[in-house]
Here is the input.
Amino acid sequence: MIPEVNFSSGDMMAVLWRGRLKELIPLIISVMLLPIGLMAQTSSPTAGAASQPVVFGNGLQTPLRFAGESVLTNQVSLSMGASTFYDDNVLQRNSDRIRDEGVNFNSDLKFLRQTENVTFSFDYQPQFLLYNNTSQFDRLNHLGTLNLTGRLSSRFYIGLFDTFSYQNGAFQSLAGQQILSGLSSPTALNQSIIPYTVRTLANTSGLNLSFVKSHRTSLTFSGSYDERQFGSHQIVGQSLYNSREASGGFQFQYRVTEHTSFGLALLHQDSTYKGGTGFGSDRRFQNESAFFSLQSQVSPTVTLAFFGGPAYLTSFGQAAGGGALRQFEGSGGGSITKEVKKTALDLSVQRAISDSGGLYTIVENTMANFGVRRRLAGRWEAGLHGGATRAETSLLNLGSGRTDALIGGFDLVRPFSNGSAFHVSYQTFHQLSSGSVPVAANFDRDVVTVAIDFRLKAIPLGH
Here is the structure.
């Protein structure tokens, strides 16, 4: 259970401050919409080497970048941002739709350090939402990521990653959300299905140990742990499923040519779901899977990736419909990524067994996603992304439940030479469920945001 945030009698000044700030929301909105012609005279960001999509199965996805675009390393930076937004379904409930506007204040602390043997990055992003009329989500939200890779010797490498988030409500990332490329990890939490909750805590961590036998052959042992918990108070009556998953795997990778690699992986996943009622209150699943992967850079700007293989699923615990589960399933998918100087494009399709974002226990998850970035005239940039997801329980003989979700968004960005940026974005969410899920799980939601981010300080760390 995630505790509620309460104000004590000594916090009355904070309550008064919040009331005064709410009165200023119309003024803040007006200021955010003023022209920024003076800032538009600055130059564009520095470009560098293009990024490459990562091999399927390592737990990470890379941002979609233009050819020649790079990320600055060996520095500590601090950014601050403010935005105003309009949300046409704050509670994410069609039967009791509440429309509201608000402001968001956020900061971003980045630490990037790269040496000959170690690469370390840390990113912490707190943000505070303040609605004009809806006060239950006026809380501080947190997002933190950590990545560490190191060379232990000439043949052994170690990798560590962790992502933590604490979010009030179902408000998705604001303007400036990165579009990712390639295929998501087979152990990643389901981010496409949005649950009806007022609070979510999620953490994903992992450890990889690689042995590089030669310039063609490598072996990787990996382990990860994922956890997601929901607040005790849901928007509708039926409880959501809290989940925990531990996984371990082995991957063999062989570089066929300079631009093509082949992989074979074995993966064990042990997941537990508690708190829900529709599909049993305490369920445990074990998933044994084997899959191949193939990645090829077919041209200097185009990369293809594929994976596929069988999985054997076993269930434990009492199900709502009774009986244990033992069956084979298949998984597979592919992606294409094109990165040139002015356009970056990624398309991916994927079908695999995964968690369900809290609505069900385990599901057969099918999704298709796309993302496009385009450089426009006058140093403006545009981003377009969308996706469709179907989470289904009947294919796994786990009762009758299905959720279809559509997510899309558009982001217009004007970056500046000092790392600052101006954003105008639109995001839309549509979700429809059938079977053993409350009708309140169905919703549609549109959010319009105007934001500006300022780079306050960047301290170089040397080489």
